[in-house]
Amino acid sequence: MTTRRYDPDRRDRIIDACLDLVAEVGVAGVSHRKVAARADVPLGSMTYHFAGMDELLREAFGRFARTVSDGFERRMREATDLDGARAAVVAIITEDLFGTQRDLVLTHELYTLAAREPAYRALTNAWMARSRAALERHFDPATARLLDALIEGLTIHRALDTEAPLPGTVTEAVRRVTTPR
């Protein structure tokens, strides 16, 4: 008779392994077998914890989006005035989002899934809603929506452009969007 191994972190390890694999090989290269091997769990654990690959990917990307949103909210919560809020937005763009190649790839893999699959679009919409709510601590809703789009766009440009942005470009863009006319 075999004894069951007590492993309360198994589900979390599977999710973490899935995210690591997506960052390395993309969603198309992820399989139950590869995730199980990376997480060091029996292949049967995959079907025990997740109904299928789609559920695992939704859980993994949901965790990733929440982690990024938590950092975003923390930055905005620490700002105490308009200048601090502007500085927080600049830091989100220049330091936090896509701070690693892993985060860049995971974000773009999620964007690609969301472009095709409504279930993943729900994840990105929730992510954007949290971002805008954090921005609305300091900015009106219309400005928060513009800032959210600016953050996404500038972050993507910074990550993918072959030339480094000019110093002050991000700061100037944030100032322009947040200055009343």
In short:
The chain is mainly α and 181 residues long. The protein has nine helices and no strands.
Topology at a glance:
Layout: H1 10-25, H2 32-39, H3 44-49, H4 53-78, H5 82-96, H6 101-116, H7 118-135, H8 141-160, H9 169-178
Helix pairs in contact: 1-2, 1-4, 1-6, 4-5, 4-7, 5-8, 5-9, 6-7, 7-8, 8-9
Q: Would you mind describing this structure in some detail?
A:
Pfam families: TetR_C_31, TetR_N. This is TetR family transcriptional regulator. This protein is mainly alpha-helical. Helix content is 75%, strand content 0%. It contains 9 helices and no strands. Helix 6 crosses helix 7. It is elongated, with a radius of gyration of 19 Å. It starts with 9 loop residues before the first helix and ends with a helix. The mean pLDDT is 91.
| Count of helical stretches | 9
Order of helices and strands: HHHHHHHHH
Please tell me how large the radius of gyration is. Answer: 19 Å
Shape by Cα distribution: elongated
The number of strands is 0
Q: Which residue ranges are poorly predicted, with pLDDT under 50 across at least 5 consecutive positions?
A: none
**Would you tell me the overall average pLDDT?**
91
* CATH architecture descriptor name of the domain at 54-178: Orthogonal Bundle
Q: Please write the CATH class name of the domain at 54-178.
A: Mainly Alpha
Biggest β-sheet strands, sense, barrel: none
Which secondary-structure class do the elements indicate?
mainly alpha
Helix content: over 70%
Distance between the termini: 75 Å
* CATH homologous superfamily designation of the domain at 54-178: Tetracycline Repressor, domain 2
Might you state the CATH topology name of the domain at 54-178?
Tetracycline Repressor, domain 2
* Subunit organisation of the chains: single chain
